[in-house]
């Protein structure tokens, strides 16, 4: 039976908006009982006219919501569909909407707690379903193409520690410590003393319990507080996966905090999701997944370090490693999909499936980057002579290199 003219008209509008992406749009529900060769291009099936109207009205937000609600079905591979949709230019209205969300989702002291609670306090049990055993929810570092996610996350922790050139009994402050994996690794494997800050109650509780369990509570203190309230002096500052939650309007606050704690003589490392050029976050991700998020460009980061005359020592882009990391997360998430549905509902599970698949696509397609920036105060003398120390096989080898370089 032919579709009514209004449905045909709205579908034609959406097809034009989706150009030049090779995707098909159709009304109804795909017939999964028919077995045939898969189509060359993925298809978006729109359940009914209200869903069609919603998608035509605001595709940047409503595609994700309709998919989460089950009112949009994808025929074919979801990840393939999202990668193809990256061929569609971002509309001015989407940028405007994301900017407007920035005003609503302020990263003030109160706003940051609300935004972080939305994402990270879902429950530790949920994240444990699909993260690695150390509960590391940031980009891994795969030393070899066939490294496992667990191996790659440990390698990432070492990669960060070596870049910071840590030595026994130094003091380190960490802003945004997640479930504590890096802080505990720095203390346990590199012999430093750590104060780690986080405003997620679920994560801090888990990290404190793990520190007690591993006998590291005397060397690592987990503090539930905002990065802006960090005080004291330290040899090194580190932040992994927090900068993208700071927000552009608060970059100067973070820079001032770093200056206050390491001054002219300390070292620092920022590990963060970023962009090749400044632009706003995907509005659906920002509204439903990461309120208050803003992945900065490399230039924006250097600009907020500049007033304090920090010296940039090293920049690395691990984009392909993050694509691989999220591929592993998505695979594990799919393996535990029914458990997520049972625990948090079908709409939540579909929303997170879309978020993880979209993240894989964003890193594969180069929309998102993963930067590590190492810097120091202008009078810092604790710096390596060359980059060989990054690839030593053990922390002990690094300590020997440090001793030789400073003798």
Explain this structure.
The protein is α/β, with parallel strands linked by helices and 407 residues long. It has two domains: 5-89, Nonspecific Lipid-transfer Protein, Chain A (2-Layer Sandwich); 109-406, Rossmann fold (3-Layer(aba) Sandwich). The strands form two sheets. It has a seven-stranded mixed beta sheet, with helices on both faces. Strands 1-2-3 form a three-stranded mixed beta sheet. The longest helix has 20 residues, at 346-365. The termini are far apart. Helix 9 links the parallel strand 4 and strand 5. The protein has helices spanning 5-18, 49-57, 59-69, 78-85, 92-104, 109-120, 124-128, 149-164, 181-190, 201-213, 251-262, 283-289, 298-305, 319-335, 337-344, 346-365, 395-406; strands at 24-27, 43-46, 72-75, 171-175, 193-198, 220-224, 236-240, 267-274, 311-317, 369-376. The protein contains 17 helices and ten strands. 48% of the residues lie in helices and 14% in strands. Helix 4 (78-85) packs across helix 16 (346-365) and helix 15 (337-344) packs across helix 16.
